[in-house]
Design goal:
By secondary structure, the protein is mainly alpha-helical. Helices cover about 55% and strands about 10% of the residues.
Length: about 130
């Protein structure tokens, strides 16, 4: 029996910008190219380039105290890495920390058994059932 693909959605085919790509964006901006022209040269969607320029642009101050904005690939990379670190599922331990502190206190200081801690926590309705 032959397998058929009945999906009506196409596979996503994007990739993240590399440090090298960000450096190319900086060089092309300095040449005076627009974001659309940079996107064509790099084979990326123009929205990707616009977002990257916004992500990596910072305000600088000249010696005469006037300000100007310029793109720094290092800033874009740092912001990307910071945002990326917030992605993904968070460890469950962080969600149940109040219960763990309660259990640690009862077990270590008051010499309760783990079963007694769980029973008391349920009776007192102190914590969400999923965290017990």
């Amino acid at each position: 029996m032959a397998l058929t693909n009945k999906d009506n959605t196409s596979a996503r085919n994007f990739k993240h910008l590399s440090k090298f790509d960000r450096g190319k964006i900086k060089a092309l901006l300095e040449e005076g190219l627009s974001a659309s022209e940079i996107a064509r040269k790099l084979g990326r969607h123009r929205s990707t380039i616009y977002r990257e320029i916004k992500r990596g642009t910072t305000t600088q101050v000249r010696s005469d105290l006037t300000t100007y904005e310029t793109y720094f690939p290092e800033t874009g990379q740092a912001v990307y890495e910071k945002n990326r670190s917030a992605c993904g599922k968070k460890p469950k331990v962080l969600q149940v920390e109040p219960f763990l502190q309660y259990a640690e206190k009862k077990i270590l200081k008051e010499k309760w058994s783990p079963d007694a801690v769980v029973g008391a926590a349920r009776r007192e309705n102190k914590f969400d059932k999923a965290s017990i």
